[in-house]
Amino acid sequence: MTCRRSRTFVLPIGKARIHKVGKDVTIVSFGIGMTYATKAVAELAEQGIDCELIDLRTLRPLDIDTVIESVKKTGRCVTVEEGWPQNSIGSEIASQLMEKAFDFLDAPVLKVTGKDVPMPYAANLEKLALCRTSAKSSRPSKP
Questions:
Q1: How many other C-beta atoms are found inside a 10 Å radius of the C-beta of residue 3?
Q2: What is the pTM of this model?
C-alpha cells in the first residue's frame, strides 16, 4: 500500500484519533507508547477484553473531550507512556477525568509508565526501566 502525498491534507492539531473502537476499557497513549498500547490491545483481545485505543497525537492542546466520551462508554481508563509516573501525561489525564468524568468511571484510572528511576545506560537495565506489555517480555534476553 502506498501513501499519496497531498498538499491539501493537514493533520489536525489538538484532535485525538480513535485507533480502535471497543467497549470494555479505554486505553490512551501517544508517540512510542502506542507501540506498547497496540500490543496490549492485541493481547487483551485474546482474553476477550474489547479495548478502545485512543492515540492523542498532540499533547498540547490535549483532546480530553475524546477521552471523556470514550470513558463514558467503557467506564475504565488506562494510560500508557514511556515516561516517569510522576508529573506524566497519564497523571494529567487521570486528574482531568476525576474532575470532568468521575461519575462515569467504574474503576480508578491506571497508569502504565516506565519505572521511576533514572534511565540506565546498559541495554538490559533499560529494558527493565521501560513499560512492558507482559511479564514474559520484561526479562532481558540472555547473551
A1: 5
A2: 0.85
